[in-house]
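User: Please run a holo structure prediction.
Assistant: Happy to. Please share the sequence and the ligand.
User: Here you go; the ligand is flavin mononucleotide.
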Amino acid sequence: MNVVLGVCGSISAYRAADLARELIRLGHTVRCCLTDAAQRFVTPLMFEILTEQPCLTDVFTEPETGQIAHIDWAKAADLIIIAPATANTINQLAHGIGEDMLTTLVLAAACPIVIAPAMHPEMYRNALGSVRTLAERGATIVEPTEGDVASGETGQGKLAPILDIAAVADAILQRRCSLVGKRVLITSGPTQEPIDDVRYLTNRSSGKMGAALAQAALWMGADVTVVAGPQSAPLPRAATVVPVRTAQEMLAACQSVSADLVIAAAAVADYRPAHPMAGKIRRSSDALSIELIPNPDIIATLAKGNPTATYVAFAAEPSPDLAVARDKMTRKGVHAIAVNDISNPAIGFESDQNQLTVLFADGREAHSEVTSKLSIALWLLDLVTWPTP
Ligand SMILES: Cc1cc2nc3c(=O)[nH]c(=O)nc-3n(C[C@H](O)[C@H](O)[C@H](O)COP(=O)(O)O)c2cc1C
């Protein structure tokens, strides 16, 4: 696969040479793009020799006559890695600025982007807003590690280990294309079930897992629709998003989507108030009872309606006992159920991390590590997808 490696003006720019070599060792074609500041630390010649490819340095200096390198390289790239990424380049990218070859090339690219920041810890703290913006837009951030930085101070700012950056990049590249031509439907976030016109029943789902699944499925080439409750986590813009509020709306929206794979990551309210009141329930000294009636089981209804698709349910379980989840899987008629143990505060709702046990209807069982929701999403999609013909 074609990788563009962007190198910025950091003291750790020399480490990009090892990254280029590791990516080549993994079988990828690597072409490098150096910022002006990067060339104060390392030379284009070094990368040209290592990669046996021309190096890009300037928007107006074309390596091939008659070509427009920033467009051609962006189109040909399966992945762009920026390592080390400086505060300056990160801030420019977050604001859509294309002032040099690297930032212009990224502006022209549609492929996944991996960003490995390296800088003084205070600079990193100041750049965090831009880092978050880029992550929300779908870039994969390989976080800098804690340790001693060039100024002699200690903190988070050291370029992540080269092998980690290469492994993240390689994982994204390996998975690319495995869902090309497939339609993936993901439900995400909480539902809100009205009690009256101002109050509702809901839950703590942030929608981060649904957003991660959508991003991962897009990277794998799928056509992704997300039917999303009112969630706080932003969804990737390349997905078709159908916003809904209640479980009934979620079911109706899902029924109007044709899908090959359905992943029900939404935390749907099991019950809703039987008689939501128009207006506002007034305070009184009397006790108030609200009658709750069951909501439809969305994935079970979908699985019954179109048995040709693959269905993966999610179950948030307050105990690690898998018997309950196995019963749920059978009752819902799904192919697999992904269980998270919500008694562990380090994972699940609102957390950036998760850990899943996946039970399959055919008896298989798989356990993930505690890791980022994006890594879990890639892992889960790998488990439940089929080989491309
Ligand atoms: C010795 C030295 C080391 C530097 N190291 C870093 C660094 O690790 N990270 C960073 O964000 N900026 C670092 N800078 C500052 C950048 O080189 C500077 O902001 C430059 O404009 C970045 O340009 P670029 O983003 O186009 O590469 C360093 C500067 C010097 C002089």
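Residues 8-12, 35, 37-38, 86-89, 100, 118-119, 123 surround flavin mononucleotide (CB under 6 Å).
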